[in-house]
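ok so I'm stuck.
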Amino acid sequence: MKNINKYVEKAQQSGIRHISDFVDDISDVIQLTVGEIDLPTPEETKLAGINAIKNNFTKYTSNAGTLELRKTISTFVKKHYGMAYDYKNEITVTVGVSEGIDLTLRTLCNIGDEIIMASPAYPAYITSTKIAGAKPVFVDTSKTDFKLTPELLKNAITPKTKAVILNYPNNPTGTILSVEELAKLAEVIKENDLYVITDDVYDLLVYGSIKQSPSIVTLPNMKERTVVLNGLSKSHSMTGWRIGYVLAPDWISKEMFKVHQTNVGGASSISQAAAIAAMTEDSNNPAKLVPIFEKRKKFITDYLDKLNIPFVNPEGAFYIFADIHSFNMSSWNFSIWLLKTYKLAVVPGTAFSEYAEGYIRISYAADLTTLKKAMSRLELAVKSLKIINK
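replied:
not stuck anymore, here's the structure
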């Protein structure tokens, strides 16, 4: 038999999903792994999906998405980014943000290009870059509060660099870059004539006084070189509906369309109808989620303080990136041991690149009752390690 695509062969299964393979064989496991909110999709959004089925809106739509949804996204984007995007030529509705990541990288990358990404990096960035025939270039941000800085970015750029991926609020750390920090990165990006791919899927799930995480696309002269990825999975608890969208200049969108049309054809008609309701009648859903997540975050961080486990205090999203270096175990071994011995599933840091070794990601997208049980199990695990290491 002939070899399969070498770029696919070199890609690895997501470490987040890999840990789930072990969960399947163990009963009574508390899973704090996958980034999926436990709360239901908002009522008006669900009703719009139900009505779409009842009204037989179950056929193909325009490949780029229905005009009504793209108009809705354009209005939503104008309000939240303060920017105008042409619904006909600059917006593509995707099958979740995951398709948007793959679509963007396959459109922009030539074989051998380099894509810079801050580590820890969401696994799909890594895999999609490799499948596109490009090379992921990781920037270790562990010494800069898990933030990409202009100095780190400059040091990573080579003649082969094509684009920089930004993801703030970050998965897995929850860090955010301020407008001032983004502006400094933007200057380096413009000086080196690079593209930017900004994954803003958590931008409305932020804590403190701000209502939305800043995005680099809003800065002067950045729209022309920026591809924005966003969607409804996190903000509206719609992971299973699989609706995302890509914002890009028309000349990039035109090329993306070729990949999108060939790859998926188009997003679900039913999900698109629901998405319109999510962005109109249920547009305030993220604001309802934030106080819930703030309580959960405080519970987890207070517990980790009690256990003397250092962590990155998240400014957005719904993850805690906890430091387990003191346990003298690799993040993978610790995660498997925790799963098998205490039936608690977390994600090892190495799922987000080798530079995230020594950390675990804990999702608090679960109800407080579940989180209390989970932390009790973690406490037992930590106490047993301390006894062993005495």
